[in-house]
């Protein structure tokens, strides 16, 4: 997933230099805040965040803007299927089954309570059309809390999940 995005961007850079285009990367709040049972997914999203930051610094002199759109929970058919097929077989179910079920249940509840794609669509449209696109967009109901949560030390986040210890 990450290397595909990187390869596509690298191939587009010559055209973007000519047109002073824009790069808009759709990531996830999981690239900012890692939750239990989401390490693999979050690591890819963290890498995408770092790539976007590096590209912004490297391509800024060529007047190529780079924006990240980081939605939280978005209610789509793909998200629903992904939640139902979470990789439970990849974990030690004896040790983590209770935590896994709790995380899956909370994620499912948040997804079903979330809007569809309109907020994410609006953020992408802003990044494409605005003369001064933002560096990061956080479209979703929980968006205002994301930067604050990202500043909380991981150990504090773990304290809300005593079953991890």
From TrEMBL:
Xref: InterPro entries: NAD(P)-bd_dom_sf, SDR_fam
A Gene Ontology biological process term: steroid metabolic process
Entry superkingdom: Eukaryota
Molecular function GO terms recorded: oxidoreductase activity
Protein name: Uncharacterized protein
Native source species: Oxyrrhis marina (Dinoflagellate)
């Amino acid at each position: 997933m990450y290397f595909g995005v990187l390869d596509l961007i690298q191939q587009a850079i010559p055209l973007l230099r000519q047109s002073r285009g824009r790069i808009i990367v759709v990531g996830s709040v999981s690239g900012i805040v890692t939750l239990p049972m989401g390490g693999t997914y979050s690591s890819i999203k963290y890498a995408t965040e770092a790539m976007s930051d590096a590209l912004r610094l490297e391509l800024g002199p060529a007047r190529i803007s780079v924006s990240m759109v980081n939605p939280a929970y978005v209610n789509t058919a793909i998200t629903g299927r992904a939640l139902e097929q979470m990789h439970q077989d990849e974990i030690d179910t004896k040790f983590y089954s209770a935590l896994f079920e709790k995380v899956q249940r909370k994620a499912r509840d948040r997804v079903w309570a979330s809007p569809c794609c309109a907020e994410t669509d609006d953020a992408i449209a802003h990044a494409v059309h605005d003369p001064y696109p933002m560096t990061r967009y956080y479209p979703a109901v929980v968006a205002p809390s994301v930067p604050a949560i990202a500043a909380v030390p991981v150990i504090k986040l773990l304290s809300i999940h005593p079953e991890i210890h």
